Amino acid sequence: MKKLGWGLVGGGEGSQIGFAHRAGSVIDGKFQFVAGAMDIDPKRAVEFGMAQGLDKDRSYSDWQEMLEKEKNRDERLHLVTVATPNVTHHTISKAFMEAGFHVLCEKPMTMTVEEAKDLVEVSKKTGQICAVNYGYTGYPMVRQMRSMVDIGDLGAIRVVVAEFAGGFMADAKDAENPRVRWRFDPTQAGMAAVTVDCGIHALHMACFVTGQKVVSVSSDFGHGIKSRQLEDDNLSAFRMRHGTIGRLWTSGLAIGRTHGLTLQVFGETGGLRWTQEQPNQLFWTPLNQPTQLLERGGNHLSKAAQRANRITLGHPEGMVMAFANLYRDLGDTITAMNEGNRPDELAGWYPSVEDGCHSIEIVQAMVQSAKRGSIWVKV
Ligand SMILES: NC(=O)c1ccc[n+]([C@@H]2O[C@H](COP(=O)([O-])OP(=O)(O)OC[C@H]3O[C@@H](n4cnc5c(N)ncnc54)[C@H](O)[C@@H]3O)[C@@H](O)[C@H]2O)c1
């Protein structure tokens, strides 16, 4: 079967997230990397594209050129990933969808709720997918958590505790580093910093695993490094649709916690605990019983966790494989759409444009709450 054509905007040489996309997209052989405009600098964009193996005529100096030329080709791209800084996501994703391309947009999907709602509308109107790269939901053991919640192993979910707190923004001397600076500049990052950079992943994961939306929040934003215009620490309480009590701590100041993404889910009849730095293990404690360690790759796991697994038990998988699972979901979905078939239900677990929009609504409510002394704000 012919591979699907894939293009990348942003994610150039030295970028934080480009490699994970370039590697994850092609691991399962569904996509082939054929076009890109990967750098804000036109010369570097062309050179880096060619160094990555793109043909000269498909290694573009900017995304507008890529869009104009790609939309007129007979062999069209099947998916375009947008991995540029936040301020550009709405414009670029919208333009590609309107030209008839499916999009995988980096998080945060947009800067404002209005832009997010606009992308939901554009996706509906054009029939193009606008997925959002909450790539960590691709980990097999995160999918196992969702399956266990779905089938009722935990009973009703009482409490979910989501954390994404690391030391990646803790060095005050780093404030002028261009890769850090834009994240605290409201004109480039949006209404929040660590909340949209990191916390948003943990929040989405809480929604993904529990199958619930957030309905209200109370947030305390802090500026550990005083010169920053946006928060580098956020402790929030939230409530979910079915009454679940939620807690989020996200921070860039937590030196020593390296990546620091964890999720704990406590129900009436059991608790689950997962941490991204040991992603192949999941702690499961049924009520009044000893804790069990579930290992990725085990044949006792759910269909969703087994589908997300590639390598046998004991050989660790990591972040690029988690991203690859989103690409596999999208590849399966796009192929089914092209052939007029129904996609595999599990392929539909990739984060959707509605998920991206819900996250921005939560962040907006958190910003409003933090500005007003942590009062409870409806989402
Ligand atoms: N899903 C994740 O786990 C994850 C992790 C890190 C970053 N991100 C997101 O990915 C996006 C990029 O973050 P990053 O950390 O890689 O940033 P970065 O600053 O390290 O890299 C940005 C890249 O985009 C290029 N670029 C900038 N503007 C461009 C434009 N208009 N056209 C083409 N290329 C352009 C830059 O030259 C650079 O190569 C952000 O939205 C960020 O929130 C997501």
Q: What attributes does this structure have?
A:
379 residues; Rossmann fold; nine-stranded mixed β-sheet; Dihydrodipicolinate Reductase, domain 2; alpha/beta; 12 helices; single chain; 14 strands
Architecture overview:
This protein has 379 residues and is α/β, with parallel strands linked by helices. It folds into 2 domains: 4-136 and 325-352, NAD(P)-binding Rossmann-like Domain (Rossmann fold), CATH 3.40.50.720; 137-310 and 357-378, Dihydrodipicolinate Reductase, domain 2. It contains 12 helices and 14 strands. The chain has helices at residues 18-24, 42-51, 63-71, 89-98, 113-126, 140-150, 178-181, 186-189, 194-210, 303-307, 319-339, 353-371, and strands at residues 4-10, 31-37, 79-83, 103-105, 130-132, 157-165, 214-222, 233-240, 245-251, 261-267, 270-275, 281-286, 292-295, 377-378. The strands form 2 sheets. It has a 9-stranded mixed sheet with strand order 13-12-11-10-6-9-8-7-14. A 5-stranded parallel sheet has the order 2-1-3-4-5, sandwiched between helices. Strand 8 and strand 9 form a beta hairpin. Helix 4 packs parallel to helix 5 (113-126). The protein is globular. It starts with a strand and ends with a strand. Residues 9-12, 15-17, 37-40, 63, 83-86, 88, 106-107, 133, 135, 179, 197 line the site of nicotinamide-adenine-dinucleotide (NAD).
